[in-house]
């Protein structure tokens, strides 16, 4: 019986096993060598091994080898199976090549393979991920026409995608089709639709679906109640949330710990943090230890509110009762610390939790990574990224997105693009956020050709450029004075069915202001009104800046009055722009502008200081600029990079004895007065002043 076993073992089993082993350790080239060897000795590899090889080649993007391998299977065997085609469809879809994936499914019958529900679900899910929900629905109808019955997962994918885009009406229609197909809705798809209603702020419909679930014998779970109670508390229906909690206690549907978790989560969503802490303390006094989930809800609530010290106290309380933190615990604590810029503390906490063996996942690293970029600490971000990979934590799409966005904003666009390619090579699909980050980076560097090339690539990968993409491109053209191209990009918005928003109009108005084309500014203002948009504070600031730059201070003052009449509150940009313009204007009008600003409760900041120091230098008083810098440093005023550049210029002017046109005594006194008011404000609000007896 086993006489030829050694031959079989050497010719097939060993080679097939070797091929699989090389693929498992990502040694694809060696696996292909083994395959060639098997072909040479006339041994046919197993269908499953070939499918694994397909998965690997698609993952690394070696499409030439994919099609070569496919042709070999047709001519030399083993023939393509459902598993082979499913691997190909999944691989192409993950790489963003939906059309090839769809074509692969359509040719399956030529090779006597009937597409099954798994193959269809891959295509439907891929379309949903890219926001092509109508295409996904078309595939559902097509699979039904071809005699393939959708699964509950198929419908859940569609319902979730429609809810994510806020289309709960269409999601409900799809939900109703489930029973027509002879399927029974489960708790997961009900939760998806309830969550969709809550996000759409239609808590009434969410309640009705909840009652419908119960009438059909679908038992709600802890997720159902969490969604509903969070919705009630989040959108100001606390009485209904409390009522649902009471009903939950009476119905006895869930274990005690789940009831406690939901109660705690509800109070957290309502922002009743004092109550939730009292609730936890009462439980602990009674010897009832809340679960990690309950503690995580409280920690996350404090972190969201920016109360990271309180979040840490809850964490210490949790540790006191010997509860092991989860990965969510660490992520929530880091979020609170990063939100307030306490990155050193966040980093120490991350490493301390890892040393103790607590579960720390890529989410925690991503939170801290984003924190470093927000703070402008590129070195810290890079070190953390390296540390993450050294510890064997593979970055996911979210981590790559955060890193690419951070590098793009920091002006390191070449590094960001290299990381983008690495992300794609790992089989992770970049989304609109990633593309928009890169497009923005290229636009800021004036590389509009590369930016537009990426926009085209988005479309080829099945992603739909959104209004954010268009606004970034328009802003890029405006920044570099290419107003005709900016206008063409604006017209493209209408052609692709998008609707310009207030950012679109503000960007173009700003661009035309910089180009001193006030006719176009007025045209776009009228266009904006005609399309139902009212000017916001940014619109007014852009126009005020335009008038100040062209020395039309009377028009700037009129615009300031119009802003005030419209009920819009000026911000620091408004104040500083007006002050900068006023300091360059004739004395009488400068004094009127100053009076207006103080009447509007103007609060100075570092930019105000820089504006005034700069005018001291411009008006031939560098020594006065340095004197005020000295006085500000004595009260621990935080200068920024611009402040130090102004100081350097003032020193150079003194050393080189630069001749300036001296300001009139009146203008000098006005500058001194404004500087004194600014200094006095910072002096009274400085930490030293507050702590002094």
Largest sheet: none
- The mean pLDDT is 81
Rg calc: 32 Å
Q: Which segments are poorly predicted (pLDDT under 50) over 5 or more consecutive residues? A: 1-12, 689-693
The end-to-end distance, rounded to whole angstroms, is: 99 Å
Summed up, the helix count is 39
What's the total number of strands?
Answer: 0
Structural class: mainly alpha
The percentage helix is over 70%
Shape call? globular
% residues in beta strands: under 5%
Written overview of the protein:
The protein is mainly α and 693 residues long. 40% of the residues are buried. The protein has helices at residues 5-24, 28-40, 47-60, 63-76, 82-94, 98-106, 117-129, 133-145, 152-164, 168-180, 187-199, 203-215, 222-234, 238-251, 256-269, 273-285, 292-304, 308-320, 327-339, 343-355, 362-375, 378-390, 397-409, 413-425, 432-444, 448-460, 467-479, 483-495, 502-514, 518-530, 537-549, 553-565, 572-583, 587-599, 606-618, 622-634, 641-655, 665-685, 687-691.
Q: Features of this protein?
A:
disordered N terminus; mainly alpha; 0% strand; 39 helices; 693 residues
Please summarize what this structure is.
Helices cover 74% and strands 0% of the residues. It is mainly α and 693 residues long.
Topology:
Layout: H1 5-24, H2 28-40, H3 47-60, H4 63-76, H5 82-94, H6 98-106, H7 117-129, H8 133-145, H9 152-164, H10 168-180, H11 187-199, H12 203-215, H13 222-234, H14 238-251, H15 256-269, H16 273-285, H17 292-304, H18 308-320, H19 327-339, H20 343-355, H21 362-375, H22 378-390, H23 397-409, H24 413-425, H25 432-444, H26 448-460, H27 467-479, H28 483-495, H29 502-514, H30 518-530, H31 537-549, H32 553-565, H33 572-583, H34 587-599, H35 606-618, H36 622-634, H37 641-655, H38 665-685, H39 687-691
Helix pairs in contact: 1-2, 1-3, 3-4, 3-5, 5-6, 5-7, 6-7, 7-8, 7-9, 8-9, 9-10, 9-11, 10-11, 11-12, 11-13, 12-13, 13-14, 13-15, 14-15, 15-17, 17-18, 17-19, 18-19, 19-20, 19-21, 20-21, 21-22, 21-23, 23-24, 23-25, 24-25, 25-26, 25-27, 26-27, 27-28, 27-29, 28-29, 29-30, 29-31, 31-32, ...
């Amino acid at each position: 019986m086993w006489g030829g076993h050694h031959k079989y073992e050497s010719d097939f089993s060993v080679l097939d096993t070797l091929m699989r082993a090389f693929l498992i350790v990502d040694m694809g080239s060696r696996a292909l060598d083994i395959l060639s060897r098997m072909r040479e000795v006339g041994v046919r590899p197993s269908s499953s091994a070939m499918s694994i090889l397909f998965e690997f080649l698609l993952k690394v993007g070696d499409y030439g080898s994919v099609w070569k391998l496919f042709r070999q299977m047709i001519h030399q065997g083993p023939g393509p199976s459902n598993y082979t085609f499913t691997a190909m469809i999944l691989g192409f879809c993950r790489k963003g090549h939906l059309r090839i994936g769809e074509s692969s499914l359509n040719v399956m019958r030529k090779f006597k393979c009937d597409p099954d529900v798994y193959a269809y679900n891959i295509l439907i899910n891929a379309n949903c991920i890219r926001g092509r929900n109508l295409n996904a629905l078309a595939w559902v109808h097509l699979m039904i026409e071809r005699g393939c019955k959708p699964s509950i997962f198929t419908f859940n994918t569609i319902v979730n995608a429609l809810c994510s885009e806020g289309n709960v009406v269409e999601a409900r229609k799809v939900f109703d089709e489930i029973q027509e197909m002879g399927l029974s809705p489960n708790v997961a798809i009900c939760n998806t639709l309830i969550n969709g209603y809550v996000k759409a702020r239609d808590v009434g419909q969410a309640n009705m679906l909840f009652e419908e679930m119960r009438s059909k014998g679908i038992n709600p779970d802890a997720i159902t109640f969490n969604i509903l109670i969070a919705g009630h508390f989040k959108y100001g229906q606390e009485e209904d949330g409390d009522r649902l909690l009471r009903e939950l206690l009476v119905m006895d549907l869930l274990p005690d710990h789940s009831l406690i978790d939901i109660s705690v989560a509800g109070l957290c969503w309502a922002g009743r943090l004092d109550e939730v802490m009292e609730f936890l303390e009462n439980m602990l006094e009674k010897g009832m230890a809340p679960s990690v989930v309950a503690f995580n809800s409280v920690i996350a609530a404090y972190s969201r509110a920016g109360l990271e010290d309180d979040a840490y106290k809850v964490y210490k309380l949790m540790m006191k009762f010997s509860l092991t933190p989860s990965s969510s615990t660490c992520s929530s604590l880091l979020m609170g610390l990063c939100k307030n810029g306490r990155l050193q503390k966040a980093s120490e906490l991350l490493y301390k939790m890892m040393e103790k063996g607590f579960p720390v996942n890529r989410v925690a690293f991503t939170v801290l990574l984003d924190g470093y970029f927000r703070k402008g600490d590129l070195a810290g971000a890079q070190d953390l990224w390296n540390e993450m990979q050294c510890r064997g934590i593979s970055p996911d799409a979210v981590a790559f997105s955060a890193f690419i966005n951070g590098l793009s904003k920091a002006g390191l666009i070449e590094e960001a693009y290299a990381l983008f390619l690495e992300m794609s090579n790992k089989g992770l699909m970049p989304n609109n956020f990633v593309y928009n980050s890169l497009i923005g980076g290229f636009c800021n560097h004036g590389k509009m050709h590369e930016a537009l090339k990426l926009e085209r690539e988005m479309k080829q990968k099945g992603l739909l450029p959104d209004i954010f993409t268009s606004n970034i491109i328009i802003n890029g053209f405006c920044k570099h004075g290419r107003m005709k191209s900016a206008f063409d990009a604006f017209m493209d918005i209408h052609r692709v069915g998008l609707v310009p928003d207030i950012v679109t109009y503000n960007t173009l108005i700003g661009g035309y202001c910089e180009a001193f084309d006030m006719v176009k500014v007025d045209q776009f203002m009228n266009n904006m009104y005609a399309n139902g948009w009212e000017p916001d504070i940014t619109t007014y600031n852009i126009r005020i800046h335009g008038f100040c730059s062209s020395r039309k201070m009377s028009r700037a003052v009129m615009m300031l009055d119009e802003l005030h009449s419209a009920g819009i509150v000026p911000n620091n940009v408004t104040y500083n722009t007006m002050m900068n313009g006023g300091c360059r204007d004739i004395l009488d009008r400068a004094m009127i502008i100053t009076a207006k600003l103080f009447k509007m409760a103007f609060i100075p900041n570092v930019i105000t200081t820089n504006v005034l120091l700069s005018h001291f230098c411009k008006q031939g008083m560098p020594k006065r600029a340095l004197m005020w810098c000295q006085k500000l440093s004595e009260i621990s005023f935080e200068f920024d990079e611009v402040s130090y550049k102004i100081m350097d210029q003032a020193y150079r002017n003194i050393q080189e004895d630069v001749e300036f046109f001296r300001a009139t005594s009146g203008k000098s006194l006005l500058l001194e007065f404004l500087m004194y008011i600014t200094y006095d404000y910072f002096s009274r609000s400085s930490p030293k002043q507050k702590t002094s007896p």
